[in-house]
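Inverse folding, one chain.
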């Protein structure tokens, strides 16, 4: 593999860092090593990830179209689901296209600005997903625990407000960590043993230790992860208490079926996030970091359409209508 390292020669006073009369060479791009292996293995990874990406776009796109075109799905639960599927399309697109280009590349480089832009969008979209999962749990809590008041509370206007809050809050959360990490001195080496620009490897490449910045980022990540997660647990604890009191078995089965899909997505997504970001990633092997990141960045968005559609009769009927409509148009 041929690696090019570009640097800018910049004389910088390092007195504050404990150095004097020293010249630092700041990197202008990073090298993402990606997946190990010979060319044949690289080709296998390329086609595997490409298939996962295309299936994810197809599955989530089908849900978006079904919610948009089937008026029976114009209810808060399915509107949230449609927005969640739309979010998943952008979430996987923030990393996988660059990942595919990186596999085929000989240099495997990404610019300094491109690295931190990917960092920002990937984590902002992931944060938005956390908020959406929390809002969807709150919607199920209202529908099951307060069915008589649900139509007056979860109005169309309130539904739109919650969706906007999720999107806006998700993108307002991560500028601070991105700016803090980008201001660290990166004077070489510039090789990241990962396929995305992730905080752990970036901290490892910094020329000086930054324990305060690491503590801020890990505390911030913990708040972003645990805040929505605890609200989800709270919502479903109340839902479970209400469901066990249902007089009919059919009612309990329907309630559990409605919430089951969402809970599967929550535990799959949050399980990998907590392993990766609640504790500093510098202690995890690079291979483990890649596997965990691949699960929540590519595998989870792929499985979500199947989890939601296969367990939901209304969604399956709507997807059949969309499929028949496309066949008739052709």
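Residues assigned per position:
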């Amino acid at each position: 593999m041929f690696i090019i390292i570009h640097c800018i020669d910049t004389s910088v006073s390092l007195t504050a860092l404990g150095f004097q009369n020293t010249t630092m060479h700041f990197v202008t791009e990073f090298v993402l090593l990606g997946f190990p292996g010979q060319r044949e293995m690289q080709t296998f990874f390329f086609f595997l990830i490409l298939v996962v990406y295309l299936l994810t776009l197809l599955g989530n796109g089908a849900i978006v179209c079904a919610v948009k075109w089937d008026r029976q799905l114009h209810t808060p639960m399915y509107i949230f689901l449609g927005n969640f599927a739309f979010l998943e399309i952008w979430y996987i697109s923030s990393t996988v296209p660059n990942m595919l280009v990186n596999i085929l590349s000989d240099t495997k480089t990404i610019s300094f600005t491109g690295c931190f832009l990917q960092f920002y969008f990937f984590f902002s979209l992931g944060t938005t997903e956390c908020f959406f999962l929390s809002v969807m749990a709150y919607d199920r809590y209202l529908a099951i625990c307060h069915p008589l008041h649900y139509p007056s509370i979860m109005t169309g206007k309130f539904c739109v407000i919650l969706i906007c809050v999720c999107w806006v809050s998700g993108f307002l959360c991560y500028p601070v960590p991105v700016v803090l990490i980008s201001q660290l001195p990166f004077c070489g080496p510039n090789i990241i043993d990962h396929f995305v620009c992730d905080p752990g490897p970036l901290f490892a490449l910094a020329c000086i230790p930054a324990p305060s910045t690491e503590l801020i980022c890990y505390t911030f990540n913990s708040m972003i992860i645990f805040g929505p997660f605890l609200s989800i647990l709270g919502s479903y604890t109340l839902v479970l208490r209400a469901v066990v009191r249902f007089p009919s078995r059919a009612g309990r089965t329907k309630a559990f079926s409605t919430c089951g899909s969402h809970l599967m997505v929550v535990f799959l997504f949050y399980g990998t996030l907590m392993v990766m970001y609640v504790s500093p990633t510098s202690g995890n092997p690079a291979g483990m970091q890649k596997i965990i990141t691949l699960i929540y960045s590519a595998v989870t968005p792929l499985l979500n359409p199947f989890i939601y559609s296969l367990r939901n009769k209304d969604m399956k009927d709507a997807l059949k209508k969309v499929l028949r409509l496309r066949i008739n148009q052709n």
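The CA atoms of residues 124 and 173 lie 7 Å apart. The mean pLDDT is 82.
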